[in-house]
Design a protein that fits this description.
- The protein has helices at 2-7, 12-19, 23-31, 38-47, 53-62, 67-70, 122-128, 130-139, 156-174, 180-194, 199-222, 226-243, 246-262, 266-279, 286-300, 304-319, 335-349, 352-365, 371-387, 391-408, 411-424, 431-442, and strands at 103-109, 115-121, 445-446.
- The chain is mainly alpha-helical and 448 residues long.
- It folds into 3 domains: 66-243, no CATH class; 245-341, Serine Threonine Protein Phosphatase 5, Tetratricopeptide repeat, CATH 1.25.40; 351-448, no CATH class.
- The longest helix is centred in the middle third of the chain and has 24 residues, at 199-222.
- The radius of gyration is 22 Å and the shape is globular.
- The two termini are 23 Å apart.
- The relative contact order is 0.10.
């Protein structure tokens, strides 16, 4: 229900005005704290033009269909916002069920009004949030939840690379939570494939396993589980040495610097980035990637001059890159990426106006497929706007980010919005601020 409401870009308050149900009842139903009545579901379905999707889903839940069935996306057709990918789920890549005690990071409203992130066991998340969790899964299926790549005329390496590409595309659209077990399944598969292999074949499998471990680290990072992200990045670094690919090792070091920045550990961010730059091959993009993450580390230390100097150095290295590199790592790095990272650093350093301008430029230049990244940039732009005391615009942009954060489950987006919630509290009487805070409130669980 919440997923469809966010897709239609309606706040809970605006939907309430349309269907005339009690606001708190609607919020509890969306959070899974109270089962919605059939009449409420039908009112949502009609108002949101879901064409019977929500009604069919509710009837399926009432008849006892489990979440494992719903998560396969066959109960109702996807909303119009979901891209139709030619790639589906691989039977070979069926997910290993995660432990019921594995934690999921979710935002929670405390009794004093703050929003904090708490880790709850997966079984509690799926059981306690009930229908809301199921609806989120069906409302934004993962390109049929995992990749299927035909094995015909493909080597195992090519097959695994095709799976990885689909996982990356699915993450950009739908977020990491349902993809993490799929990636881990591939890692276990590669471990089995390595048995009995020697020489080049074994090194190639180690290289692909490194790539999947890095991807798993990224998914955990976006999901807000930094400890798990560190674990998988450490495994990726270990396997990269076994693969004998120096460029891949440098890339993993740069990614570890980025993770340290997200964890607000500036010393580690700078040290690891400098280590990556020290071993990067001249003419590759990887030195520029590492310099970009080092620059943010300096910003976290409050060193504005050093941060700006490092961003300038990143651009110089980028413009001096070999136009025909043999390494494919870091090919996404361009001036726009460096600029959006610098905007984030400007926000940390207190230049909120410059940060807001940088994020707006980056959002305008984003390709259509980068749905989750758009949400991240919007949330950071909103926080920067709040820093300029433009509360009304900050709340408006924050609502856009919230819609994407709710769809993708990105902890990076929700963490920024939790900060925004606290900053905007002083302007609680402004209508757009009140709408943003009410909408955010409907998206989080509440302390008992």
């Amino acid at each position: 229900m919440r997923s469809w409401r966010n897709e239609r870009r309606l706040s809970l308050a605006k939907l309430k005005a349309r269907i005339r149900y009690d606001y708190s009842y609607m919020a509890r139903a969306e959070r899974g704290e109270q089962a919605p009545s059939a009449s409420l579901v039908r009112a949502y379905d009609d108002a949101l033009e879901a064409r019977g999707t929500l009604v069919r889903l509710h009837e399926a839940i009432q008849s006892g269909v489990g979440l494992d069935v719903l998560s396969r996306g066959h109960v109702a057709k996807a909303g119009s916002h979901v891209a139709n990918s030619p790639a589906g789920l691989a039977e070979e890549a069926s997910a290993q069920a995660p432990s019921e005690e594995e934690g999921i990071s979710i935002p929670c409203r405390t009794s004093d009004g703050r929003i904090i992130f708490v880790s709850v066991p997966r079984r509690v998340f799926l059981g306690g949030l009930g229908a809301a969790a199921a609806t989120s899964i069906v409302g934004a299926p993962l390109a049929q939840a995992a990749p299927r790549a035909p094995m015909v005329d493909r080597s195992p390496i090519e097959h695994l690379q095709a799976i990885r590409r689909v996982l990356i595309d699915s993450d950009n659209l739908f977020g990491p939570h349902q993809l993490i077990p799929k990636v881990q399944e591939q890692i276990h598969t590669i471990t089995s494939l390595r048995e009995g292999q020697r020489g080049t074949d074994r090194r190639q499998l180690l290289q692909v396993q490194t790539q999947f471990a890095e991807l798993c680290g990224w998914f955990h990072q976006d999901a807000g589980d930094h400890r798990a992200a560190q674990y998988w990045m450490d495994r990726a670094l270990q396997w990269s040495h076994g693969a004998g690919d120096p460029d891949l090792t440098v890339y993993i070091l740069a990614r570890k610097s980025q993770l340290a920045g997200d964890m607000l550990d500036p010393v580690e961010a700078v040290d690891v980035a400098e280590a990556a730059q020290g071993v990067a091959r001249p003419g590759s993009r990887l030195a520029a990637v590492a310099a970009t993450y080092a620059a943010h580390g300096y910003a976290l230390q409050g060193e504005a001059t050093e941060s700006a100097r490092e961003y300038d150095r990143a651009r110089e290295l980028l413009h001096a890159v070999d136009p025909d590199p043999s390494s494919s790592w870091g090919v996404w790095l361009d001036d726009a990426y460096i600029s959006v990272q610098q905007a984030r650093s400007q926000s940390v350093l207190g230049d909120h106006r410059g940060a807001a301008k940088g994020f707006r430029t980056a959002i305008s230049a984003l390709p259509p497929g980068y749905h989750r990244d758009r949400g991240v940039y919007l949330s950071r732009e909103a926080l920067a706007l709040a820093g300029t005391r433009d509360a009304e615009q900050a709340a408006t942009v924050g609502l856009e980010a919230l819609a994407i954060g709710s769809e993708t489950g990105s902890a990076r987006i929700m963490a920024e919005l939790a900060q925004l919630d606290g900053v905007l509290q002083r302007w609680h009487a402004v209508p757009s601020v009140r709408e943003f805070r009410d909408s955010l409130d409907a998206c989080v669980v509440h302390e008992a």
